[in-house]
Recover the amino acids of this structure.
């Protein structure tokens, strides 16, 4: 294949063959380096970045959403909600995400990857509380959250919110994912991710 043909293929590459991630704008300057907007036709980087520091930042953000939806994470110390059985075919989950993106595009008229990024920005806490021991006393302190952890937390909270709503309603996975992303993108506190972000930041403000 000639170099010109290769360049033409690269120019035509879109995420899922439909949406251009490179058009997406990230408003939060602190997250620009940690949200990868490369276009990918299919998921799974197969761990090729895992031995590098901050490797997650090299994984396209849509693939990171897929990976997080596999295991949304336990909620509560007693694992009140366990998502350990979500694992399965990445192709099937990729199709669910694609259908969710279709619904988002139909409802909002926007690039669904832009909606995903907006949802991450609105769900990424800037501060949280840590507990440390001073002598025999435990103390709490407000700390700034690193940019990579902000993205990690946002994806986890979005996945947990969609998963919990799926368990509590008759809506299917496509509807719960698309609704959670659209609510979070609007900053609506009906999205669990937005509520949890606000709770963490209020808690940090009280611990200053």
């Amino acid at each position: 294949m000639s170099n010109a043909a290769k360049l033409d293929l690269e120019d035509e590459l879109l995420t899922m063959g439909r949406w251009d991630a490179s058009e997406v704008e990230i408003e939060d300057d602190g997250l620009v380096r940690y949200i990868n907007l490369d276009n990918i036709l299919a998921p799974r980087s197969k761990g090729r970045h895992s031995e590098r520091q901050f490797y997650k930042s090299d994984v396209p953000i849509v693939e990171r959403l897929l990976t997080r939806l596999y295991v949304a994470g336990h909620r509560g110390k007693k694992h009140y909600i366990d998502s350990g059985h979500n694992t399965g075919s990445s192709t099937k989950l990729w199709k669910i995400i694609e259908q969710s993106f279709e619904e988002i595009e139909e409802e909002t008229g926007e690039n669904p990857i832009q909606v995903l990024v907006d949802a991450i920005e609105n769900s990424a806490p800037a501060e949280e509380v840590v507990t440390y021991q001073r002598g025999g006393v435990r103390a709490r302190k407000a700390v700034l959250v690193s940019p990579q952890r902000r993205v990690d937390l946002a994806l986890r909270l979005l996945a947990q919110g969609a998963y919990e709503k799926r368990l509590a309603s008759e809506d299917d996975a496509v509807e719960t994912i698309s609704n959670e992303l659209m609510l979070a993108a609007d900053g609506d506190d009906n999205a669990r991710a937005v509520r949890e972000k606000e709770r963490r930041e209020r808690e940090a403000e009280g611990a200053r």
Observations:
- The first strand starts at residue 127 and ends at 134.
